[in-house]
Amino acid sequence: MQSMDELFKGRHFEREVIVLCVRWYLRFKLSLRDLVEMMAERGLALAHTTIMRWVQRFVPEFEKRWNRFARKAGRSWRVDETYVKIRGKWTYLYRAVDRDGQTVDFRLSANRDVKAAKAFFRKALETQGRPPVSITLDGYAASHRAVRELPAQSSRWKDTRLRSSKYLNNMIEQDHRGVKSRINPMLGFKVFDRAAVTIAGVELLHRVRKGQFNLGRLHVRGQAAPAIWNAVLSA
């Protein structure tokens, strides 16, 4: 993993400005041009495309650094898909939370089918490092079929129970709102890969807000957000 100096080497702007712009864009309902105006009030001349490039460049690096401190989610997963428009076409954001509302994982997919559902479950298993005790779904048949077929592909899924409950899945549907409330003001994406990176950043900030990271050893309890981010990225 690159050091902080290496990560931001050659950038025209200081790393504090870059981190602030990326963090604010992903966390708050701000457009790129809103951020340009806000930075101009601080004497910084930025183009909105510069901030867009920062998001694409640094979100994967921020994820790596924050994930070193991630707590594992619980083993009762609530899984659902929501919709994201890319170049005028609906795509599908697979998401899961545990029984306490902590984010398990997410995956953007061009399709909503058995193959896409399996890809999401495999990604979630890799992220968490352990299979769930139960997976709760709504009535969508492809996701049910994917869960039923997983044990044949890996014995790690053999003890996972499948449940179907609209009531229990209210939690994941409510959690979608925290992500969609930030995605919707972005007014649609143009490129799938860029959308995936941006959504990963939104999901990261959503997890940070929910306190899904163990930062005790960094001694940042009670610190302001800039200090916390600097500590995480520097660790």
Overview of this protein structure:
- There is one protein chain.
- The protein is α/β, with parallel strands linked by helices and 235 residues long.
- The protein folds into two domains: 4-69 and 213-234; 76-191, Ribonuclease H-like superfamily/Ribonuclease H (Nucleotidyltransferase, domain 5, 2-Layer Sandwich), CATH 3.30.420.
- It has helices spanning 4-7, 15-27, 32-40, 48-67, 114-128, 141-153, 170-183, 192-209, 225-234, and strands spanning 76-86, 89-97, 103-109, 134-137, 161-164.
- The protein has a five-stranded mixed β-sheet, with helices on both faces.
- The longest helix is centred in the N-terminal third of the chain and has 20 residues, at 48-67.
- The radius of gyration is 19 Å and the shape is globular.
- The termini are close together.
Query: How many domains is the backbone divided into?
Result: 2
Total DSSP E strands: 5
The description of the largest β-sheet is: 5 strands, mixed
Annotated CATH topology of the largest domain: Nucleotidyltransferase, domain 5
Look at the structure and give the mean pLDDT: 93
Task: Specify the overall morphology.
Answer: globular
**Strand-residue fraction?**
5-15%
Give, in spatial order, the strands making up the sheet with the most strands: 3-2-1-4-5
Report the CATH C-level class of the largest domain: Alpha Beta
The CATH homologous superfamily of the largest domain corresponds to Ribonuclease H-like superfamily/Ribonuclease H
String of helices and strands? HHHHEEEHEHEHHH
**What is the C-alpha radius of gyration, as a whole number of Å?**
19 Å
CATH architecture of the largest domain: 2-Layer Sandwich
Structural class: alpha/beta
Q: How much helical structure, as a percent, in the residues?
A: 40-55%
Put simply, the count of helices is 9
Distance between the termini: 11 Å
- Low-pLDDT stretches: none
